[in-house]
Specification:
The strands form 2 sheets. A 7-stranded mixed beta sheet has the order 1-5-6-10-9-8-7, with helices on both faces. Strands 2-4-3 form a 3-stranded antiparallel beta sheet. It folds into 2 domains: 74 residues; 237 residues, 2-Layer Sandwich (BirA Bifunctional Protein, domain 2). The model has no long low-confidence stretch (mean pLDDT 90). α1 runs antiparallel to α2, α1 packs parallel to α3 and α4 packs across α9. The radius of gyration is 43 Å and the shape is rod-shaped. By secondary structure, it is of the alpha+beta class. The longest helix is centred in the N-terminal third of the chain and has 26 residues. Bound molecules: 3,4-dihydroxyphenylalanine (DAH).
């Protein structure tokens, strides 16, 4: 038969029981609340009627003590976490699209041009966008009164004066031909270089013109470089860029820094030469200017024109991209309309 002593014994045991972990908490619950205290309640019926009151009160005290202790430790240790929706992967949900940007069509075109020339031994050189008159004009054999120097074409930053002083005028470069001069001033032939970059002209923005655009300049200087070398190089480029059936033709032209000079047309790769609105029904589209480097230009860079000859060419990257991808408005390149840009995803 259970006695008050038994209750006190269990009470002592419950008081001494150390709860530090979740396992000990569970064990306490099992041993005391469900186990020993439950068993003591069962004993009440065997206790003498006159002792039932004190015995019952003692067990109740014990039960309250045990429950308080349990609660206290539950609060500090924490209840086992219920599985929440967080962290559960719902494999039936649609995938969140992983959107990447696309390479800009002008970058694509520039990279392609550079790649074609790199494979035949050209390196890449760059020059400043803010340039002096010497590199942009004078060294390139532009006479001092040439109309291209006038304000309507060129964005001047500093105007120094007249005559020789003009060489120190500072402007935004109007073409990448300025990089030719910088390369030749700093390097001895043989030179085979390609200079892509941004150029600036004071033009109203329209579908066909912009005040900021891009060019690629090419320069080859060595002993015995001929017009035939230039023609073959540009023919090779045109086939690589526009397709292997492309033909080229050179039309006589004029640039101050080349003599003789020419403009390069390629057979229209849209209609194959039959005539369409891209080639204005002529079967040919113009892609660049070129020529043999003028001896004055070589001399301006301290390269002996008696020993060396060279050819140069220059093309607009926007123009090549517009032809290749059939883009009919120059402004699309700078508007950053993602509907336009995303079309170059797979190129
Ligand atoms: N610099 C010329 C322009 O902006 C393009 C050009 C023509 C570059 C002939 C050349 C060249 O190197 O030989 O219109």
């Amino acid at each position: 038969m259970a006695s008050l002593n038994d209750v006190q014994g269990v009470q002592k045991e419950a008081e001494d029981f150390v709860i530090e972990t979740r396992e000990q908490l569970e064990e306490f619950k099992r041993t005391f609340i469900k186990g020993k205290i439950g068993a003591l309640f069962q004993e009440i019926r065997n206790v003498a009627p006159e002792d039932k009151k004190t015995f019952g009160a003692a067990i109740n005290n014990l039960k309250n003590f045990a429950q308080d202790k349990l609660k206290k430790h539950q609060a500090s240790i924490g209840r086992p976490k219920k599985k929440s929706a967080q962290g559960v992967v719902d494999t039936t949900l649609p995938v969140v699209p992983h959107t990447l940007g696309t390479v800009h069509p002008l970058t694509l075109t520039r990279n392609r041009i550079v790649e074609i020339f790199e494979r035949i031994g050209f390196n890449v050189s760059e020059g400043p966008e803010v340039e002096d008159d010497w590199h942009n004009f004078s060294a390139l054999n532009f006479p001092h009164n040439h109309p291209a120097r006038e304000m309507q074409d060129t964005f001047f930053i500093e105007k120094q004066g007249q005559g020789e002083d003009k060489n120190d005028d500072i402007a935004l470069r109007t073409h990448t031909s300025s990089v030719q001069i910088r390369v030749m001033e700093n390097q001895e032939p043989p030179i085979r270089t390609l200079s892509p970059g941004r150029v600036f002209r004071n033009e109203a923005i329209s579908a066909r013109a912009h005040c900021v655009f891009h060019q690629v300049e090419g320069l080859y200087v060595d002993e015995n470089v001929s017009f035939a070398d230039m023609k073959q190089t540009l023919y090779h480029f045109s086939k690589e860029m526009f397709g292997k059936n492309t033909k080229i033709r050179l039309r006589p032209s004029y640039f101050p820094f080349t003599e003789p000079s020419a403009e390069v047309d390629v057979t229209c790769f849209i209609c194959g030469g039959k005539g369409c609105n891209i080639c204005k029904y002529s079967g040919w589209v113009e892609i660049m200017g070129c020529g043999m480097v003028d001896p004055n230009v070589l001399a301006n860079c301290n390269i002996d024109p008696e020993k060396y000859t060279g050819f140069a060419f220059g093309m607009g990257i926007e123009r090549i991209a517009m032809l290749k991808y059939q883009i009919n408005d120059l402004r699309l390149f700078t508007e950053n309309d993602v509907r336009f840009l995303r079309q170059f995803d797979k190129m």
